[in-house]
Design a protein that fits this description.
heterodimer, A: MetI-like fold, B: alpha/beta, Rossmann fold, six-stranded mixed β-sheet
């Protein structure tokens, strides 16, 4: 990253903080917490461990939900690849499942699974599954038939083709799904907590807003943003390592999106 | 055209693709096409663009089925219109396609040893042979490069030795040097002849380039416009080894070129 870019970004940050401070002064800190107040509270809640406690809860819901939804979403397209009839039967149901607004299912999940971690995991999983499933499916279907023919002529079994041709070819598509799903999983975990919870960053936001304590709300939002940014960087690096066989394109400034 | 030393004989091959929606019947691509290729012979087949050359090789390699016809290999008849295709005929028929089809997620060395790995034949002996092939086509030192880091000519050579490395008795080639510049092309043709000289495989080489067909082949078959049949056959008397850097000066080349050109009109 060159110096000019870094300076420009810092200037933008200063403008953003200035606007934030102006809003806070204009509307009053009850409605709009100030950057300084938020920073101080951030430090306070970090030091007394409260922030970590809530963050941990939200992260758990997001990670478990990501795994519970993401692993079947990743594997199912490979299992359905050779099952044309089954795939055709299931297709409208997957499309319908994708169409259901998952957040609207949250009360139902609370009813079924109670108010601890399980309903949040279910909510996250229901969103992640479809995002990963559809993008991986697109990758499985985009397999280059010429590679398959080449491998068959060279003596490949169906297993070999799945392992050496279809799987590596579909990985970039699966990652496109992961990249979209990762921030959604944090978001869904938070929504789950907003609806019913006594822990987690979503709970903290809810509690803060009820008490007219916008500083706590802002601290929670900043923490969530940080988590998502860190996850994005992690996914992007993992992807870059895994897909090192691909030609690099673009200037590489979009490291957050990992493109 | 049958002879006792035939490595492969193709009989009465015909092909038409399934009709498109709203079409009652699709036209014949191949019709009553027969030929044979002798053991260790370099057979070239030249035909106009769109005459079904790729379709022909797809059928012989059994990645696609025929509408009718059979193939004789080592005294065994293979029904090419059968529903159960056997691509590559148990690794007896290699196929070098128009596109190099190197797997972009594998390095050069993984790509060229891919068939050996699939066949469970990757050992010290085959690896030594592979090193020899890499050397023969000037690809030493690029083992760990990914395909997108190689030039077009290098990729073509890699795709060539990927098939040569597992030593199928018959190799089909579909205009493998179509998409490269003229200079690289001559180099690749020279490489191919040198490799062929080392192993003397049976080769069926399809092209629309008359010069290439004559310069490389022992025998040239001329295909008609579609539906494709073999309409002419020429034995190329030009002695080997041939210097391809100016093959148009080779004895007898010009006359044959003219003849084939007129046959293709």
């Amino acid at each position: 990253m060159n110096l000019r870019l870094a300076i420009d970004r810092l200037i933008l940050l200063a403008v953003f903080l200035g606007l934030w401070q102006a809003c806070s002064m204009g509307f009053g800190t009850h409605w709009f917490s100030s950057p300084i107040g938020t920073t101080l509270r951030f430090g306070e809640l970090s030091l007394n461990g409260e922030l970590l406690y809530h963050m941990n809860y939200t992260a758990q819901a997001a990670v478990y939900g990501f795994l519970v939804g993401g692993i079947p979403g990743l594997l199912l397209p490979f299992m359905l690849r050779k099952q044309a009839v089954l795939n055709a039967i299931l297709d409208p149901y997957f499309a319908g499942g994708y169409g259901v607004p998952k957040l609207a299912l949250a009360p139902l999940f609370v009813l079924w699974f109670g108010i601890d971690l399980e309903p949040k995991i279910a909510l996250v999983a229901s969103i992640v599954f479809f995002l990963v499933f559809f993008s991986t499916m697109a990758g499985v279907q985009a397999v280059n038939p010429q590679y398959v023919n080449m491998a068959r002529v060279a003596g490949a079994s169906e297993r070999d083709i799945a392992r050496h041709i279809v799987w590596p070819g579909a990985i970039p598509y699966a990652f496109a799904g992961f990249r979209i799903a990762a921030p959604y999983s944090i978001g869904a975990a938070v929504v789950g907590e907003l609806i019913s919870s006594n822990r987690g960053l979503g709970y903290l936001i809810q509690a803060g807003a009820t008490d007219f304590d916008t500083t706590t709300v802002f601290v929670s939002l900043a923490t969530l943003t940080l988590i998502v940014v860190v996850i994005n960087i992690g996914v992007a690096h993992f992807e870059r390592w895994l897909l090192r066989w691909r030609p690099r394109t673009g200037a590489g400034t979009s490291w957050v999106a990992g493109a | 055209m049958s002879s006792p030393a035939a490595a492969l004989e193709v009989r009465r091959l015909s092909k038409r693709f399934p009709p498109r929606p709203g079409q009652s019947e699709s036209p014949w691509v191949l019709s009553d096409l027969s030929f044979c290729v002798g053991d260790s012979e370099f057979l070239t087949i030249v035909g106009p663009s769109g005459s079904g050359k790729t379709t022909l090789l797809n059928i012989l390699s059994q990645v696609d089925g025929a509408s009718g016809g059979e193939m004789l290999f080592r005294g065994e008849s293979i029904n090419l219109a059968s529903a159960a295709l056997n691509p590559g005929l148990n690794c007896h028929i290699g196929y070098v396609t128009q596109d190099d089809n190197l797997l972009p997620w594998q390095t050069l060395i993984d790509n060229v040893t891919f068939p050996l790995k699939l066949q469970g034949r990757l050992n010290q002996e085959s690896m030594a042979r592979m090193q020899g092939l890499l050397k023969a086509v000037n690809l030493i030192g690029f083992d760990h490069y990914y395909p997108h880091e190689l030039s077009g000519g290098m990729r073509k050579r890699a795709s060539l030795i990927r098939t040569l490395a597992y030593d199928p008795p018959i190799i089909l080639m579909d205009e493998p040097f179509g998409a490269v510049d003229a200079q690289t092309r001559t180099q690749l043709q020279q490489d191919l002849l040198r490799l062929w000289n080392l192993g003397r495989k049976t080769i069926v080489f399809v092209t629309h380039d008359i010069g290439e067909a004559i310069a490389l082949g022992d025998r040239v078959l001329v295909l008609s416009r579609s539906p494709a049949r073999v309409i002419y056959e020429h034995h190329v008397a030009i002695p080997r080894p041939r210097d391809l850097s100016n093959f148009y000066k080779l004895e007898g080349f010009g006359d044959m070129y003219e003849t084939v050109r007129k046959e293709l009109l």
